[in-house]
Every structure is written in structure tokens, then in C-alpha cells.
């Protein structure tokens, strides 16, 4: 394992967009093979060439999280033109193909003009890709969710945790009321619900109770993701304490889930970056869905080309069944797995009226900006779409200003123009990138408050 030096972080070459999904698969397989990480349990390079691509549609946010990955200059950056975003969406599609997961994110994406937000989701869907809205939920209404669902949104991921310092919600337990409200707001819409929780020194002990809440609403929530505290961006909380590791967070999740969870059967990219577990939920109880890693590996490889649509579980189950009928060699293994699971879960299946759903757990271990591991950056499965190409989210966060302050060349019919990110204007002549020192920084409230307090202390100090 080797860390990138700060010079290497600044100068690391940006990967070009893959020429085609075949090229993307080829790149993913090559890097995993070179790192000794290619195996049958690995989803990357088998099912997909990339876990997901983040499309940052604004740098603005209406919160000021203590672990925010944005830059101090983000608030000064205007919303990037729609033409450029469409171009990036088209590049994602050409590179990774249909069914690619595209995270519509920011900043807070709902701050973007509503018509434009809907147009972005429509564009992603029209190409057969899956759009996920990554939101803190503050500006989300039932009406907006209906419009997004009509536009083709697949998932809505609510980020709720104590790093956001929402007034009146001092603990994770208090935030469950808000989580509940968000889940109810989506009820009945064809959207899959996800929750993101940042695990930090202040809420580590509360993770089991948060998971317990997710477990109680497992019929309405599909995926919950826990992101580990990382020293990046404009957040003030900085590096995590020693207690927070992927292993300890996995143990906390298992405590709340009330069952052991196998996080090593289905891999998503580098094992130091992500862990993925899937539980079967029935009658308010969870059961480990991946407790037979050899079976998971067989099925993952065999079904690699089958598309699973999270928003249409019945259609997906039917497709899987049809596929299984055509593969008699797997019947014995599948039937014995179903029989074993069914027997183990029999009481919950009977008591729950045979309603069985899935609840997936993801642990994402972002890296500190000053400690980027070269191998993980190379095998990154979570990239940000930029005008130059896809960039590892960790690398992007470590040099965010270089990306967001760079003028963007806009391609329209006629002569090209250059969009200036801090003025939002377009000129026909090339403009130099804006230096962070030139930005009239719009500090977030927390920083402003601290700056004001400091200057107040200075002015009242005895001379
Ligand atoms: S390099 Fe960073 S963004 Fe990429 S998968 Fe690893 S932790 Fe995630």
C-alpha cells in the first residue's frame, strides 16, 4: 500500500472516458487482476464496470455539515450549465452503458432550478440509466417526488445524521422521527428508498439503534449506507477516532440488525473501500442473505448479464425465474439454498404473511485527503463525472477546487464559449482557471460565526 504525495494528488492524470462499456469492463478487470482482487465474489468487472457515477449538479448546499466534503469555495460557484451536464450524462452512457447508476448530487441537488432538475433525471432515464437523487430532504415534498418519479427517477437517498446539526434533533434517535417522515413521504411511489448516515466520533455508539429503526421499516427501505468519517473538504470535524473502522462499524450494524451479516461474499471494488451485505427481512426480523459465499459467487457470475431493477421487484423476480428455468444445471443448488433459508426463516415467514423483502447494507470508507492510497484510487468504483473524464470521488474531494473553479468549455451549435464558474457568464475567448485566492468566498454560517466570534474576542481584548 502506497500513499500519494500531495504533488502526485495535484498532478495525477485524469482518466479519459472509456470508449465503450466493453472498454470500461476491460479497464475494470485489468486493474482488479493487477491488484490481485479479481475473483468470483467480485461484482466489479463482472456485473458492472463501475459502481456508480456522481453527477454534481450544483455546489451549493442549504446545510453546513461538520464533515462536509465540499470546498470553502463551493458556495461561490454558480450552477454549471445544463448543456455541460447533458454532455457529461451522454459521456457516462457511452462509457458505461445502460443500467449504470448515476447519483444526481451536489451540494444539495434540490437547490437546482426544478425544471432543470427534472430535465436532468429525464435525460438519464431516456438513456436507460438509473438516476438516484442524493438529498438531505429539506426541500423535498411529495409533489417533487411525484414529478421526479414521472421523470424516471429510480431511487431517492436521504442523507440524515447528526453531522448536519439540524435544530431540534440532537441525537440519531431524535432524527428517526425525520427519517420516518421521509419514508412516509415516498410511500406508494415507484421509488426505492435509501438512507445515508455518516459514522463519526459523536454517533458511533448510536449506530445499532439507527439500524434498528431501518430494520423496523425494512418493508419500505431498500438500502442503507454508512459512510465513515474522513478528513476532507470544508468540514470542521476532521480525522476520525481510532474506534471507527469498517470492522467496528460492521459490528455495530450487526448489533442493530440482530443477525450476523456476511460482508465478504459480494464485493464492490476494493475491499478497503466498500463492504456490502444483504439481509432478507420478514416479520420485522433480518436474516443474512449472503451466508453462503460460494453460492453467492456462483449466482453472481451466472447472472452477471441479467439486469435487476430495484424499483420493480416483481418484474425482476419474474425475469430471474425465467432465467432459472433456462439454466437447469443450477436448479439443485438454488433449490437447496431456498429450502435451507426457508426452513431457517419459517417462523418469520409464517408470522409475516409470507412477505419477504431485502435490506442491503453498505459501508463506505472514504479516505482522508492527505492519505490517498494509490491502489484504491486506481480501482475506484465511485467516480465523479467531470469535463475531463471520470475521477475517483476521493481524489476529486482532495483537489475539488481544481475541478469546480475551472472554466468549462461549452459546445453549442456555432462557436464554442467558455463558462466562468464564479461569475456564471460565458465568453467566446478562453479564460484562465480561477485561483482559490481570487474567489470572493461565501462562507457557510458555521465558519462565519467562528470568524465573527474571533474578531469580537480580538476587539474586546484588553490592550
Ligand atoms: S477510492 Fe474513495 S471514492 Fe473510490 S471507492 Fe474507494 S473510498 Fe470510494
Description:
Helix 3 (82-96) packs parallel to helix 4 (114-126) and helix 7 (207-216) crosses helix 8. This protein has 16 helices and 14 strands. It is globular and about 70 Å long. Helix content is 37%, strand content 16%. It starts with 5 loop residues before the first helix and ends with a helix. It has 463 residues and is α/β, with parallel strands linked by helices. It has helices spanning 6-11, 21-34, 82-96, 114-126, 142-151, 172-186, 207-216, 246-257, 293-302, 313-325, 331-344, 346-351, 374-378, 393-398, 400-404, 445-460, and strands at 52-56, 101-105, 130-135, 153-159, 192-199, 223-228, 274-282, 285-288, 357-364, 382-385, 390-392, 408-410, 417-419, 426-427. Strand 4, helix 6 and strand 5 form a beta-alpha-beta unit. The chain has an 11-stranded mixed β-sheet with strand order 8-7-9-6-5-4-3-2-1-10-11. A 3-stranded antiparallel β-sheet has the order 12-13-14, with no helix packed on it. It has one domain (6-307, 353-402): TIM Barrel. Bound molecules: iron/sulfur cluster. Iron/sulfur cluster (SF4) binds at residues 269-270, 273-274, 364-367, 376-377, 380-382, 392-394. Residues 269-270, 273-274, 364-367, 376-377, 380-382, 392-394 line the site of iron/sulfur cluster (SF4). Pfam families: Radical_SAM (PF04055). Residues 47-260 form the Radical SAM core domain. One of its GO terms (molecular function) is catalytic activity. Keywords: Iron, Iron-sulfur, Metal-binding, S-adenosyl-L-methionine. Residues 438-463 are annotated as: Disordered.
